[in-house]
Model the fold of this input.
Amino acid sequence: MKKTATAKGRAKTAMDSVKIARDAKRPHVRDFIAGVCSDFEELHGDRLVNDDRAMVAGFGTIGRFKALILGHNKGSSVEENVESNFGMVNPDGYRKAMRLAKLAERFGNPVVTFVDTPGAYPGREAEERGQAEAIAKSLEFFSDLETPVVVVITGEGGSGGALAIAVGDEILMMENAVYSVISPEGCAGILWRDGAKAPEAAEALKITAKDLLALKVVDKVVKEPAGGAHKNPSAAIAAVKKAILDSLERLAKVPAAELVEKRYAKLRAYGNFY
Amino acid sequence: MGWYEKKDKPAIPSEKELWAVCPKCNSHFPKAEWKAAGAICPKCNYHGRLGARARIAATADKDTFEELFAGISYSDHLSFSDATGPYVKKVEATIAKLGEKEAVVTGFCEIMSHPVALGVMDFAFMGGSLGTGTGEKIARLCEEAVRARRPLVLFSASGGARMHEGILSLMQMAKTSAAIARLKEAGLPYISVLTDPTTGGVSASYAMLGDINISEPRALIGFAGRRVIENTIRQKLPADFQSAEYLEKHGFIDRIVERSDMRRFIAKMLEYWGF
Done:
């Protein structure tokens, strides 16, 4: 076992969670899809320029639900890491997600998203093809999509690139996942002028599942096996499946118009201290 | 008293006091000339930054601006502190210096007799960062605009989300975008003006969601920072990368509008749409 975890196998500090969340052996989107869905048909492309392999999309069956699945793909082998750009999505990936979510809305399929990205890709073509616009559009789009949206933060919730597919009705978060406005290293570099102060920044930013539950940014924390999901992936994925099914059952009872009203109220309440 | 204690030193103004330097083309101008040009570079036409009040004065019809939500300020729900000290201390110093409580000033006004809901960001306030108070003011402005059936005009100037307010600052991107969606659904137009600079989380939310997105000459607009991108791709980027002109060329800005033409242009668009 890594030194980062405590004797009981639970992350002690925010940086422990960051390390577990980034562990290369942690289950990734394809593992979740294989474990959560009884069948899955992947679909490709944004119909504009590209198929972004950092965003996996397709229809699948979860229990009694036929859902659209979306998720950042970090990849689990070197080849897949490279092909999927380590889960850093280009604008094309967000546009693919929106295109297929529109389809899900038309045919009454709920949407389930798996969030695991260091952030949206900071590249030249990404900027030229409108990274900012693609993320902005995605936020606007999911805010009033008339079908249930269940979000699972499974690993790294890296800023706007994560949020672009994390606007939904129920936000689930795995125990050792992290979700932050900026990476601890990035924050330390700017506010501490020293990237090595990442552990301090990680604490200060409040990025763990427990913190985010307290801040009401997530609705439910899904427990992980001792030491993290990679210690017992099948148990971790089974727990996620159960939580997703609970959410889908709850949301299936809510009429679409009411769903959108509730989602707006949820978004409106974020940081309303005034 | 020795000579070295003499109090009345001859007044030699420093370089900084005498000269204004254009941050884009590095040309030097006498301060008075720069001021007379309205913070617009006489050489390269870079449209320099304006504070929120100066922008409102340059945009709204005289005496028509009525401020809304002026009481909303920042929130330190994380009791955030970094190497340079607590967030509260920094933000309170900014408030004292600028006389603004948040990075955006919101209200109703008229632009060439067209009633609008106007929001203006101020880069001088914590780098125009999007905090919970900023997001709340923008969301409320959208909702007030819907109630009063007014078009929304929003001038952005921001380095992105305010990390001192943690994850809830990120959530303001979703909150404001949802409020913009409602405004559009209500049949109201939104003109987004991306001024120098509009980057990070603000570019990736309400600033890019205008029914039309317009900008000023040579404004910096982008998602990721130039250095981050250069370090990622290990290549030098073109000099005009992420300029308003570059974005117009790539299809993300409808039009670059000179400051002197801004009021006319906004009013003209509103007139076309029947507002």
Residues 12-46 of chain B form one domain. Residues 13 and 88 of chain B are 34 Å apart (CA to CA).
